[in-house]
Amino acid sequence: MNPAKPEYLDLQPIRTVRGTVLLPGSKSITNRMLLLAALAQGKTTLREVLESDDTRYMLAALGQLGIKNRQAGELTVEIEGGNGPFPAKNAELFLGNAGTAVRTLTAALAFCGGEYRVDGVARMHERPIGDLVDALRKLGAKIDYLGNDGFPPLAIHAGALNARGEVSIRGNVSSQYLTGLLMALPLLGVQTVVRIDGELISKPYIEITLNAMRRFGIAVQRDGWTAFTVPAGARYVSPGELYVEGDASSASYFLAAGAISGLGGGGPVRVQGVGRDSTQGDVRFADALAQMGAAISMSENWIEATAGGEARQRGRLRAVELDCNHIPDAAMTLAMAALFADGTTTLRNIGSWRVKETDRIAAMAKELAKLGAGIEEGADYLRITPPTQWLAATIDTYDDHRMAMCFSLAALGGVPVRINDPGCVAKTFPDYFRVLSGVTVL
C-alpha cells in the first residue's frame, strides 16, 4: 500500500463530536472567480481560495490558455486578467473529474476563436454535456464529440459566431450548463437572452453565478427562473481583491455530526466561514437539519448545530420527507442523518445525483444497505429506514469525495467503518479526515 495514498482508512466508533471547524473555501465560488478573473480586465487577488484537485485543474488550464497566475501567499492567488478571450489559441486541457471546470471552460472556449481539446477522467466521459453543446452550437460554435455524442471529450474549433440575441437551454439536468453559458456570453459583446426549457434545477447555484458576475461588473437581468439577459457591451472588470466564502457543502458533514452527537449529550459543532449572509444555497441544509430536530444557531459567518431538546429526549432525530432540489450536494448528508431518525426518511427531486462524480443515488443506496439500513431507490428519490442493528462495514467511495465524507458519519452509529480510497476527498477537502479528528472524541 502506498502510504502517500492509502487504500483505506479505518474509523473507530466515534463517541461524540464537539468543537469548531474552520471551513475550506467554497469550490463553487473559487472556480467561478478564477475563470472570471481570467476573463477580466486587470489583476485580481483572490484570498481564502480552496486548494484542491478541482481548483488545481482550473488554474493549470488557465495557465495553458495564456493567463498568468501565481500563488501570492497561503490560500491566495493573483491572476492577470486577459481582458476578454484567452490569449492562447491552441490547447489540450485535462480537467480530471472537475465538472464545474469542464462546463464553464467549454462555454468560454467556444467563443475564443481557437482550437482546443477538453478531456477528463473516464467518469467525465459519462457525465453529459450535450445540452450545453447544443446551446453553444445555436450561437455558431463549432464543437465535435471525440467519443460518444453528448459527452466529453470535446474538440472546440474556431467558428463564425452567430450573435443572434437569443438562445434556449434545458435546465433539468445540470445547472452548470446555464452557469457556463451565462459566464461566457459577455465574450460575444451583444445583448443575449437565455431562455430555460423546462424546470431549472439547483437554482441556488445560479445565484452563486449571478453574484460572481456582479462582483466582476456584469449585472444579468433575471425574469424569474425562465429567462436571463446578458447586456450588450458587458465586460468583466477586476474588483481588485476578493475573499472566497467557506464551503457550505463541506459544512454539512460537521453540522450533521453535531446534531447526531447531540442525541447522546455531545455537540455542539460550529463551522466558521459561512453563515446567514452566504451566497451559497447549501446553507439551507441547516434548515433541513432543523426540520429533523437539530438545534441551529447562526451568525453572519458561522453556523452551529446540536440536537434539539425533543430529539435529545427521544435519542432520535425526526424522520422527514424533503424536496432536495435546492441542496443537491448537501442532501447526501441528510441521507446519513436519516440513519439516526425515528422512522423512514424520503429525499425527493434528487435526479441530478445520477450525473455527478458517480451515480450517487445508486452508490448511496448500496453503501447505506451495508450498514443495515432499509433502502428504496427510485429514479429521483431515495427512501432510508434506519438500521435495527448497525453493521460494521467497508464503504466503497467510487472516486467520489462526497461519498467518503458522508460515510465518515457512520462511525457515530457505534460501529467501526472502513472508508476505501479516502484520498478521493482531495477533490474539494484534502484535510477532511484530519479536521474531523480534531472535533472527535472516541
Your description of this structure?
The protein is α/β, with parallel strands linked by helices and 442 residues long. The protein folds into two domains: 8-25 and 245-441, Alpha-beta prism (UDP-n-acetylglucosamine1-carboxyvinyl-transferase, Chain), CATH 3.65.10; 27-219, Enolpyruvate transferase domain (UDP-n-acetylglucosamine1-carboxyvinyl-transferase, Chain), CATH 3.65.10.10. It has 13 helices and 25 strands. A four-stranded mixed sheet has the order 3-16-18-17. The radius of gyration is 22 Å and the shape is globular. The protein starts with 7 loop residues before the first strand and ends with a strand. The model has no long low-confidence stretch (mean pLDDT 96).
Short description:
With 442 residues, this protein is an alpha/beta fold. The chain contains 13 helices and 25 strands. A four-stranded mixed beta sheet has the order 3-16-18-17.
